[in-house]
Write a structure and sequence with these properties.
This protein is α/β, with parallel strands linked by helices and 238 residues long. Helix content is 21%, strand content 29%. It has 5 helices and 16 strands. A hairpin with a 5-residue loop joins strand 10 and strand 11. The structure holds flavin-adenine dinucleotide. The site of flavin-adenine dinucleotide has 21 residues, from helix 5.
């Protein structure tokens, strides 16, 4: 269901009112299942190689990097976690961080630094992903922001570890979102406003799950939300 134009008032009254295109739709209950979009570097060559060596999901695609030299982009906890995880498959992991400061927690950073298969490139940005014509990532054109030096890093896989953007901005101010914009839920699916459960409104999947972000967890919370809607509608009908 398209969820554009939902207003704060829509979430306080029953039935909830939604505008879909030019039509106003009324509903007794709402499941927010709009997911989260990975943050990309935004390079055309990167976009062309998604699924051909460029990935935003280490858990999903890590296996395909078996025995290969790869890169992880980022300097936060997700990048460190992904890099450490990917050492199970890849022969070498280079973490590329655009500054020399890391947002990662000390413990995660120390683990990555201590890992024999992980190397770091600081103050480095990716200018281009190579291999677009072959539809197969061959390497990265890099630049050191401090020195201006440019070189090519031959790798076969690039994983983005620069976070996700939950698709929940249309609900800002209407329901509780956390500091990064994820829908806050109680018991995985119950949506709140100012800390109070909002009856009839549920969220599931990646839009409320910053930790696992897997199809099976999304399906699981989706099922939970559906069961709650069923129960809620039954109670309304009594
Ligand atoms: C490349 C890749 C590979 C993956 N591989 C695996 C895997 O192998 N195994 C695994 O378990 N997981 C995998 N995942 C993760 C899995 O796809 C997600 O965890 C799962 O799809 C999340 O489900 P969701 O329903 O929460 O969100 P999504 O599947 O992202 O669905 C959200 C839907 O909401 C729509 N939407 C967004 N905003 C709005 C709006 N404003 N109004 C209306 N609709 C909107 C979107 O268009 C989309 O259709 C992978 C993810 C990626 C990116």
């Amino acid at each position: 269901m398209k969820m554009a134009h939902l207003t704060a008032a829509d979430l306080t009254k029953s039935p909830i009112e939604l505008t879909i295109g030019k039509e106003i739709v009324q509903t007794r209950s709402l499941i927010i299942a709009s997911g989260a979009s990975a943050r990309w570097l935004g390079l055309p060559s990167e976009q062309a190689l998604i699924g051909f060596g460029v990935s935003s999901c280490a858990t999903c695609d890590g296996f395909f990097a078996s025995g290969k030299e790869i890169a992880v982009i980022g300097g936060g906890d997700s990048a460190m976690e992904e890099a450490i995880f990917l050492t199970r498959f890849a022969s070498k992991v280079t973490i590329i961080n655009r500054t020399e400061n890391f947002r990662a927690s000390r413990i995660m950073l120390e683990r990555a630094i201590a890992h024999p298969q992980i190397e770091f490139l600081h103050n480095t940005i990716v200018e281009e992903c190579l291999g677009v014509e072959e539809k197969d990532l061959k390497g990265l054109k890099l630049m050191n922001k401090k020195t201006g030096e440019r070189w090519t890093l031959p790798i076969s896989f690039m994983f983005l570890g620069i976070g996700h953007i939950p698709n929940a901005s249309m609900f800002a101010g209407q329901i509780d979102l956390d500091a990064d914009g994820y829908v806050k839920t109680e018991h995985n699916v119950f949506v709140t406003r100012q800390g109070v459960q909002l009856h009839g409104v549920y969220a599931c999947g990646d839009v409320q799950d910053r930790r696992y972000r897997q199809a099976i967890t999304a399906a699981g919370t989706g099922c939970m939300a559906a069961l709650e809607v069923e129960k809620y509608l039954e109670e309304l009908g009594r």
